[in-house]
């Protein structure tokens, strides 16, 4: 399966459609919308984020982004692969690209938040070198949040 990765602007239609599907999936997994942490695309700080969309045979198949937290670390955000395209290496390719972009920008740490209702994601992150850390930032008071980081 031919896959390409493309850095996109925050207003990219494919990015927003994939995020809509991610939110739908998370809405079915979690009991409360308060447990789902989104990106506020009306926030001017979104301009500092890097987003990529993965295309499989030309169709949007996955997305992800990194959000800087000062100069301390970047956070992996809105990471998703369409179910039909899973188990084809797309997630690993996107993760590698985003980690590379973080390193290029001078960051040595990448963090993320997920939760127990996302067992596939948790296994994926652990497989790729992420380890559990204390909840940080907006997740500090979220009992359902599980946070991870990786040294780049």
From TrEMBL:
GO terms for molecular function: acyltransferase activity, transferring groups other than amino-acyl groups. Residues 3-152 form the N-acetyltransferase domain. It comes from the Bacteria. PROSITE patterns: GNAT (PS51186). InterPro entries: Acyl_CoA_acyltransferase, Bact_Acetyltransf, GNAT_dom. Pfam families: Acetyltransf_1. Coiled coil: none annotated. Keywords: Acyltransferase, Transferase. The keyword Ubl conjugation does not apply. PANTHER family: AMINOALKYLPHOSPHONATE N-ACETYLTRANSFERASE-RELATED, AMINOALKYLPHOSPHONATE N-ACETYLTRANSFERASE-RELATED-RELATED. This is Acetyltransferase (GNAT) domain-containing protein. It comes from Paenibacillus catalpae.
């Amino acid at each position: 399966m031919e896959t390409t990765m493309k850095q996109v602007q925050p207003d990219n239609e494919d990015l927003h459609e994939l995020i809509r599907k991610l939110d739908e999936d998370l809405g079915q997994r979690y009991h409360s919308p308060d447990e789902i942490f989104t990106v506020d695309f009306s926030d001017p700080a979104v301009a500092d984020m890097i987003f990529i969309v993965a295309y499989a045979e030309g169709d949007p198949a996955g997305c992800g982004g990194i959000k800087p937290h000062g100069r301390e670390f970047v956070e992996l955000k809105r990471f998703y692969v369409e179910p039909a395209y899973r188990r084809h290496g797309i997630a690993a390719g996107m993760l590698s690209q985003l980690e590379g972009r973080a390193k290029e920008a001078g960051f040595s740490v990448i963090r993320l938040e997920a939760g127990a209702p996302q067992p596939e994601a948790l296994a994926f992150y652990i497989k790729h070198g992420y380890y559990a850390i204390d909840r940080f930032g907006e997740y500090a008071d979220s009992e359902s949040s599980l946070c991870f980081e990786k040294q780049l």
